[in-house]
Design a protein that fits this description.
single chain; about 170 residues; alpha+beta; Nuclear Transport Factor 2, Chain: A; 4 helices
């Protein structure tokens, strides 16, 4: 009887440990959920970008950049680090007090990839003057992003030509 009781207890222990054995790995469904969450967080970069430019909030814009990020707004001009990037934005037309533009992007032009803690983001900025209802400036953003200290940030940005068509 004692052997049966010990054997039964041991069986319950082995079964419970076996049930927990897969907890060290990540199931396919958990990976899919994490991938969707990462894509959502990366897309927030584009949304915050447009909020920052529409509100002319340089501080908000700078929350998107990794400390050692690189920014190539046009060929032959590469800025390194948040200090240089901030200087650029302070002089950019979209942040000038005389310009009250609304920044938007066509959702169908956003492209996001995720590979672990790294990814890419492409979007276009169409700056519209609400008074004239005309696009006054446009640009594309081709970015490399990374999860740093739990937050997705821009690590490398290269300006691109926006195509004002589907």
């Amino acid at each position: 009887m004692r052997a049966l009781l010990i054997g039964g207890a041991l069986g319950v222990l082995v079964a419970s440990l076996a049930a927990c054995g897969g907890s060290g790995g990540t199931s396919a469904s958990e990976q899919a959920v994490q991938r969707k969450a990462d894509r959502w967080e990366i897309d927030r970069i584009e949304q915050t970008w447009h909020r920052a430019t529409s509100r002319q909030d340089v501080g908000l814009m700078m929350t998107l950049w990794a400390p050692n990020a690189t920014f190539t707004p046009k060929p032959g001009t590469t800025l390194v680090g948040k200090k240089q990037i901030r200087s650029f934005w302070l002089k950019a037309p979209v942040f000038q007090p005389k310009n009250h533009w609304v920044s938007e992007t066509p959702a169908y032009k956003i492209r996001i990839t995720v590979n672990g803690d790294k990814g890419t983001l492409y979007f276009e900025c169409h700056y519209v003057d609400p008074k004239t209802q005309k696009v006054v400036q446009s640009a594309g953003a081709d970015e490399q992003v990374a999860r740093i200290d739990g937050h997705w940030l821009v690590t490398n940005h290269v300006g691109a030509t926006a195509l004002l068509r589907p």
